[in-house]
Amino acid sequence: MTKSIIAVSDGIPSEQVQKIKELVGDRFIVQYVGDLSLGDYSSIEIMYGWSSELGQAVFDLPNCRLKWIQAESAGVNHINQQKLVERNCLLSSASGIHGHQMSESILGMIFAYTRQLKTSILNQEKHRWVNPLSTTDLVDKRVMIIGTGKIGQTLANILQPFKAKVIGVNRQGHDYPGFDEIIQQKNLLDNLSDCDIIVSLLPETPATVNLYNQTFFNRVKPGVIFINAGRGSAVNELDLIHACQKGQVAFAGLDVTQSEPLPEDSPLWDEANILVVPHLSGSTDQYYHRLWPIFEENLQMYLTEKEINVNKINLDNGY
Predict the structure, then answer these.
(1) Cα separation of 228 and 201, whole Å?
(2) Residue 5: which residues within 8 A CB-CB, separation 6 or more?
(3) pLDDT tens digits, residue range 292-318?
(4) Domain that holds residue 230
(5) Which SUPFAM superfamilies match (predicted)?
(6) Which of 36, 65, 95, 166 would bridge 40 by S-S if both were Cys, CB 3.0 to 4.6 A apart?
């Protein structure tokens, strides 16, 4: 039997590939995905980084040897988890490495409106000096973060020096550091009317699809700022546009949309009080540096126990 292969995404730094080789010794062959041939597919046991084309081809092999995928993303709904169950394949996510860069992007979207940065950029393009502009700040603002996972917790702590009151929303009502108040998701609609800023960080599940719809926007405080950096499927985009047009939502920042890339004919592009960001809030030049400790710890455990521990996905619920 040929040696198993660890297939490494082409974007992974070469120094990490060398570290993997040192950890596994002669037990595995370590190769970049781009260097693999079709004949190598049946020998792949570990994927460091998900390639949909390669993954599907491997899953379809009758002699599939794949036993663990380390995804490069926090969300893993794009990976066919039924195939994982059928193949008894482990899956781990990149959860926990997005907090800082996403928090900075969320603050940037908020400041684009509160500090009139978006308007100033547009005015600069027209060589127009417009002052004063209506501005505000975060002091005493009620900021609701829907989703109190690792990203939400990082954002909550970063917001504290701005003297905002931070309200977290989760299913169980569990408390976490950095939040001034926690409410259960079942009580969400009853707690919207006094929030100045709402930030969604929810994953995609059946319960979150179309969550932000007309009913939701009708309950928010008029003039609210709405930011979605979770999943585009959570927002009914036509309902959001309508809420923006009637002033119920003063400004919306969207890092994610239902269709990506956003089609050129999407009405979101033309709404003056909507900022469309091309799904880059999780991006950073430090990304793979932050991903490595997750993979390294899991790899060390896998080598001895054929098991993983960090960010292991429960395939019954998808997260």
Answers:
(1) 7
(2) 28, 29, 30, 31, 36, 40, 43, 44, 45, 46
(3) 999 999 999 999 999 999 999 998 776
(4) 98-276
(5) Formate/glycerate dehydrogenase catalytic domain-like (SSF52283), NAD(P)-binding Rossmann-fold domains (SSF51735)
(6) 36
Q: How confident is the model over 130-173, as pLDDT tens digits?
A: 999 999 999 999 999 999 999 999 999 999 999 999 999 999 99
Sheet architecture: strand order including 28-32: 28-32, 4-8, 44-48, 68-70, 90-92
- Structure tokens given for 304: 């001895």
One domain, residues 143 and 237? yes
Structural domain count, the chain: 2
Q: How far apart are CA 4 and CA 123, in angstroms?
A: 58
Q: Which amino acid is at 228?
A: N
Task: Let me know how long the chain is.
Answer: 319
Average pLDDT (14-40) is 97
Determine the 3-state secondary structure of 294 from DSSP. Answer: helix
Cα separation values, 299 from 10, 69, 87, 302, 305, Å: 18, 11, 19, 5, 10
Does residue 102 sit in the same domain as residue 92? no
For residue 144, the cross-strand partners are: 167, 198
Could you tell me which of 150, 116, 148, 144 has the C-alpha nearest to residue 132?
116
pLDDT in the model for residue 65: 97
